[in-house]
Amino acid sequence: MRWKGMLIAIFALVPAAASAHIWGVKGNDTGGIIPWSPEIRYVYRDIAAAHCAAYNKLAVITSVHAWYGDYVGFSCRFPRGYDPVKAFAHAYLYAAPVVALRARY
Asked: How many folded domains does the chain comprise?
């Protein structure tokens, strides 16, 4: 009886595990894809922007295939006039100084 219950549990979980890899954004700092479904019709731009914001870049939607099971493609690009060297220097040279506080005894 225990084996029967275990087999039922395995066969019930296999389809869920097989489809779990298609949900969510797949990508890196150059862009990615978002699986299309009717639920993301109005928010796929926000999903792409949030992904690219992690790399300090802007999202550009490159393709939208509005069929269930297809993908929305996007690329992450630096804004015009962006200089990574200046941004790095500004972030580290002009940051607020860290002040160590000593406790009085």
From this structure: 1
Extract the tokens encoding 40: 């993301």
Q: Is the pLDDT of residue 5 over 60?
A: no
Residue 9 located in a structural domain: no
- pLDDT at residue number 13: 46
Residue 88 in 3-state DSSP? helix
Residue 94 CA to residue 89 CA, distance in Å, equals 8
Residue located via tokens 């019930």: 12
Question: What is the pLDDT, as a whole number, of residue 42?
Answer: 93
Whether 101 is covered by a domain: the verdict is no
For tokens 């160590």, what's the residue? 100
Q: With contact defined as beta carbons under 8 Å apart, do 32 and 51 qualify?
A: yes
